[in-house]
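Hello K.,

You asked for the raw outputs rather than the summary table, so here they are, unedited. I folded two proteins back to back in the same session to keep the settings identical. This is the first:
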Amino acid sequence: MNWQLVSIVDRLRRTNSYSGEDMKGKLFTHVVANVILVALIAAVAAIGFVGTSTNVFSSGDGSPIYRGSGSKQVSLMMNVYWGTEYIDDILAIFDKYGIKITFFVGGSWVARYPEVLCRMVAHGHEIGNHGYSHKEHSKLDYAENVREINACGKLVLEYSGVNMTLFAPPGGDFGTETLRAASDNGYKTVMWSRDTIDWRDKDSETVYSRATKNTSDGELILMHPTAHTRDALDRIIAYYREHGFSVVPVSANIGEVWTSTNNIPAD
């Protein structure tokens, strides 16, 4: 299992990930990064011919997931580490359209707002693990990664009865020990195919564009419970529907059978 290769490829993918921003002046950097990325993928394929291979874009070996496999499906994944003021409005919008999403919650946030976590669960949404303290997981050793992940998991289970199976590392930051710690403790590590960057760019039109532009099958769309995201949600959902996309929880998009009552993949 080549965890180092997984980590290198992830850094390149994040460098070249869709941001919705003007990319003028960055073309050369992106071309070089893409050449390196292609070379790495080719190297992985070559290794496969001698009997050992690692699929760096799938979860079978604990490597991170960047996109679902569902045809005409997309998933909204909302990372929650601060505040509560817009969550009820957001839940109401999802209820209006009968949509279920995946909230990735931080353990320190859950400790402050357990009743809000329980409302998310009561509305039928999937809950994922976002670590406890929003640390840079790539800088943690194996034991520290395990503590961060499991501290959040135990708290969510205690307050809501939800046994989570998905882990989204804070800031998309992970190392080889993060992936191993998550996998060893029953989690699939989830990244994203597009990022609204709504925590930084506080404009609903920008959020809408980043969430919808050139949408394709299996998208995992990262967002946060901000005012401008709330204000863009009706239009985002309308766009998906007009283009034939269903909005489903992350686990359903990546090929698991998910039950909203307990967040545990069904037998």
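The second followed immediately with the same parameters:
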Amino acid sequence: MNNKLIKTGLASFLCLGGMMAVQAQGVTNPAPTTPSTPTTPQITESSVPSEDIYIDDIVPRRMITESVVLPYEPIREADIAWEKRFWRIVDTREKINLAWRAEEMPFFNILKDLISNGDITAFDDEKFKTPLGASEVEGKLFKIDTIPSFDYDTYQEKIEVVKNTLDWRNIKKFRIKEIWFFDEQASVLKNRILGIAPIMEEVVEGLDRPLEYPLFWIYYPEARELLAKKRVMSDDNDMAPMSWSDLIDNRFFSSVIYKRSNILDYRVEDYFDPKSDTANMDVLLQSEKIKEELFNFEHDLWEY
């Protein structure tokens, strides 16, 4: 019996060895591989754009650039029971208005870029009847100066023409034209801003104060959708997703009323003697009185 087991084990060993030999004869040595040369990565539709890789932030800011502003609700003329026009001055040097003159993105530069790109139209008047051409707008935004110089080699005087760009820091005030009206259908006192104008100050010889005049007017309903994609700088929170349309529509600014619609088209300052020592204080108090009258008018519409 032991001989049978030995023969059986020997046969199995020889059979296994033969199979291993056959497998060894069928295996070929793999050819040596050469290192592949680096290829330029292909840009496909799923590739990440470079502007989303190199950003000056943690994540790309799209809450403002992709936001959609809600259009004004439709109003019928028959539903307007009362209406009054007001003109305001926004002084950007006030603390609450410092966002208008932010170093990174001042409001004047935003308007200038929108006008230069042809996105909005600039007007010469506050009634939006006289649009300004590209050359006329450029003449207001850029100033051509002539500087005389003397050439000591030829002993001749030369005139150099220099094109100076208007510095946004010289724009310290903005004018706002708006309408307050009572919507009889909704029983609510509402307001709509019609236009915004940057104010230029020019020193004129003989005047005791600088001459102020608007550079141009923009029609706010036209620029509202574009301003909704421009972010407002904030001291409180850099992530605050507030756009310029949010700031203006929600009236997050301080202003002084300098004119209310009237028959003689008088400004507030025209009702007082400019030579009076208290003229400036009288104008400011009258402006606050107009604001209080507007508030009381809305308050008196309701009964408590």
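The CA atoms of residues 207 and 267 lie 19 Å apart.

Happy to rerun anything if the numbers look odd on your end.

Regards,
P.
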